[in-house]
């Protein structure tokens, strides 16, 4: 096995994180540039350094994927969720159990929470990511102008405190409805009984085999009639294979079983 192959195997043994489930060329490129920046001659040397420097492992985990997010990302999709999907999902249900998976720094779950509150839908919202450091930032809830540029003015006034330098902090009342915790889509048990799962802009990193497992697990996580909302480049090719049916662009409904 080459240096990189051994590294992948050892990282799995050490952290449970399976780099083999991520597309190899892309992952190798990212990690090679990380290794060079950290000035290790080989992946083997970097692995040894993990034992000496726990912050290195943290920085490494932070490099696995891109973390960029923004509020109301692809805003027309959120409009469709609000106007077409949520009214049907919420009818005849006392509350909605929602899950924002791979939520990064929190823009996505906060977006969903604002919409649900505006619609007066009682909800429980889980927000998860593999990376603890982004979850800490999500809980703090401070954002720069780029992240908040698509937040409608009435939401900005209601749920954000303006700070210096065009920054904003999410108000406690919005944070209260959301439970942030660490979750690895590749190895942890999935929540049950979800009415809505939002998982966007992470599937692009995974191999086809890993995607298949994740879509299956999402489908099992949804109640019949529940909806999976994916990223705008992440159309599911054969949704029926997972017991899902297309509902709106980039949204799939779990068919009754
Ligand atoms: C580009 S961000 C997506 C943020 C948000 N969902 C959005 O669309 O704006 C990708 C996120 O996926 C997370 N991620 C990568 N691998 C993961 C895994 N195996 N399980 C859970 N989250 C993962 C990363 O830590 C990162 O925060």
From TrEMBL:
Its EC number is 2.1.1.80. GO terms for biological process: methylation. One of its GO terms (molecular function) is protein-glutamate O-methyltransferase activity. Keywords: Methyltransferase, S-adenosyl-L-methionine, Transferase. Residues 1-257 form the CheR-type methyltransferase domain. It comes from the Bacteria. It catalyses: L-glutamyl-[protein] + S-adenosyl-L-methionine = [protein]-L-glutamate 5-O-methyl ester + S-adenosyl-L-homocysteine. The keyword DNA repair does not apply. SUPFAM superfamilies: Chemotaxis receptor methyltransferase CheR, N-terminal domain (SSF47757), S-adenosyl-L-methionine-dependent methyltransferases (SSF53335). Coiled coil: none annotated. It is an enzyme of class 2 (transferase). The keyword S-adenosyl-L-methionine applies. This is protein-glutamate O-methyltransferase.
